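To close the chapter, one final illustration. This time we ask the reader to focus less on the individual chains and more on the assembly as a whole: which components sit near each other, and how the overall shape emerges from the parts.
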Amino acid sequence: MSTKIQSPTQHTPMEAYQHQVHHHCESGAVANLFTSYGLPLSEEMVFGIGAGLYFAHVTFLKTMGAPTTTFRFFPGQVFKTAAKTLGVQCTVRTYKDAQKGMNDLDALLAEQKPAGLFTNMLHLAYLPDIFKFEFSAHNVVVYGKDGEDYLVSDSIIEFPVKISRDALAKARFGKGFLGSKGRMYHVTDFNPKVSLAAAIRTGIRKMCKRMLSKVYPWGGLRGMRRLAKGIGKYPQKFSEAQVAFYLTNIVRMQEIVGTGGSGFRLIYARFLEEAAAKLDNPELKQLAEELRAIAADWRNFALKAGKTAKTKDEAMRSGCAQLSDMLAAIADKEEQLYLKLLKTV
Amino acid sequence: MTTPIPADMLLFFIIRMDLPMIATLLDESETYAGMDHDSFLRFLEEGFERHRAIGDNTILALQGKFGPENQAGYSFMGNKSLRPFELVLVADEQKMIVDMNTDPSFVFDENSFVIRK
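The assembled structure is written out below.
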């Protein structure tokens, strides 16, 4: 049965907006935003329906000097997929003119509508310097104004923050990798024919197919196996310092960059558990447990990679060989999981 | 300490109170904040336990100044209790931690944002 997924509310989205802390900026911002517009969703639900789980290891694209490793799909796609799958109609705008972008934000806020924004982390004044780096797709929600200052909800920060118009404009329009062009989005309507259950199934199918796809050698399970082989050859191909740097960067991307630990696998396991309850499907609950076990393997992989990065000579060669085996085994387990998930939904 | 540590990683693992991952960043032959490797890990473990016991589930990392020359550094407080965690980290321009101490003179910066509880 299809039901309208929006809950009736007496409050404007701005009145209803609540800052909730999450692990990942995009799914966190979208969860907070959609919830304020009357569609209460957890971060996990947004991430799962948005088919956020992924893996890619791209040697020809460097991040901080090392091959790019990511455990989630492209920035912006979780929002786009979640909104489309849930039938949430959103207006998304980008700007050439920063003043127009800021004026449009003011107009939305005047209508009591919070807005999601892409910002550049390098220019977010409230972040500690250590966490500032060039990334123009960091999602925040602006949910009001206090005089000329903006009330900003950054879901990876404990408390809402208040920043000036100039500072927000700089963060929205600062040039950088993945240049955001002041991207701004807000909810305009909900499709009454879409059900949450259907959206969950669609999100799971989409993620599984993407992970199982053999189109890109650097993506999905193929990418994991490629990296597994690559790590085994690191000691022959690179200096010890480079090996240490590359391994450390994989750990950084897996454990730190908004993943909630274990490369988003824990977030996705919680999504499957929530989905099991919503769909009344005990098999999904079982598969959530399997993914938790895989997340523990990822965690052990990160611990081993961190330790191996500190070693030299034979210890480093042996460590890389073990890491290669660990990652290949994780890929095998994930493959089985995705095949079972596809059958289940 | 003589071997620099990636600052973002150490700060983040402290924020998450993730002792095993912190241990991967440390060298067993080094001293940290005037403590040997094992004592430093115990110091962190006891600190994390203290904060968990008063309801904190993460530690906030914030900038500030310490010492007679107002040196810039990072220190920590519980996310719920807002009680300080007395460890000070100093990072260089390459975002590597180059010094650690427990200087009690550390004062958090007046933040450019309002903390709303």
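The CA atoms of residues 218 and 226 of chain A lie 7 Å apart. Chain A is about 50% helix and 15% strand. With these observations in hand, you are ready for the problems at the end of the chapter.
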